[in-house]
Structure formats: C-alpha cells, structure tokens
Amino acid sequence: MTIKRLLTGLLLSAAMTWAADISGKWKASVPTPNGNTHEVQMNFKQDGEKLTGTVGNHEGDTEIVDGKVVGDQVSFAINRPNGQIALAGTAAGDEMKLSLAMGDRKIEFTAKREAAK
Fold first, then answer.
1. C-alpha dist (Å) from residue 108 to 47, 87, 99
2. Residue 50's closest CA among 65, 27, 77, 68?
3. pLDDT for 47-97, tens place per residue?
4. What is the 3-state secondary structure of the chain?
5. pLDDT band at residue 104, thresholds of 50, 70 and 90?
C-alpha cells in the first residue's frame, strides 16, 4: 500500500508541474468582424486551477469570471453590457491561442505574455 500511495503522489505532483502557469500580463490583437483589430490587455492571477484577473481595452478593465486553468487548457468569461463573452484555448510558454465566443460568432487570436519589467 505504501508504494502505491507514493506512486500516486508522484504522479499527481508531476501532473501539477505540467500545468500551465499563465499568471502575469498578456497582450493580444483581436480581429473584429469588420476587418479591424482591437488591442486587448489581460492581467491574470492563477492559483492552482482557479484563474482571476482582468481583461482591458480602451474602454477600461473588466473582471474575469469563471476562470479556470486545467493542464494547458484555459477558460474564462467577461461580462459586457451587451452580454457575456466566453474565451477558451490553450497556453504554451509565453503564447496562448484563444477562441472568443459571442453569440454565434467565434473569433480566434493569439495572446503573448509581456516580459517582466
């Protein structure tokens, strides 16, 4: 039994180290339906699988809701006056590929982590 518990503990520890840590500041240029781009700043704080923070643009910052990071999978939402916007994707190092769902529209973009100053 002791060896089985030890192996289980080691496997769980290994899984935790493989999880992405996306804490920090990120920037992205999000394409709009009319062909323009929208500059977005994201400030994430990750605690285990829980993700909090803000998403901001020229209109100000919006708190993240329902944020989660499981392995390399990232998901969160923001509430805007015209409805909730859900985002999901994958993180690898200093790059995150996200998909934004708003109603029946789906927009894909890449976010880059800003270097610490």
1. 26, 9, 4
2. 68
3. 999 999 999 988 889 999 999 999 999 999 999 888 888 999 999 999 999
4. CHHHHHHHHHHHHHHHHHCCCCCEEEEEEEECCCCCEEEEEEEEEEECCEEEEEEEECCEEEEEEEEEEECCEEEEEEEECCEEEEEEEEEECCEEEEEEEECCEEEEEEEEECCCC
5. confident
Whole-number mean pLDDT of the chain?
A: 85
Pull the structure tokens for residue 4.
């089985």
Which residue ranges form the domains of the chain, and what is each CATH number? 20-113 (2.40.128.120)
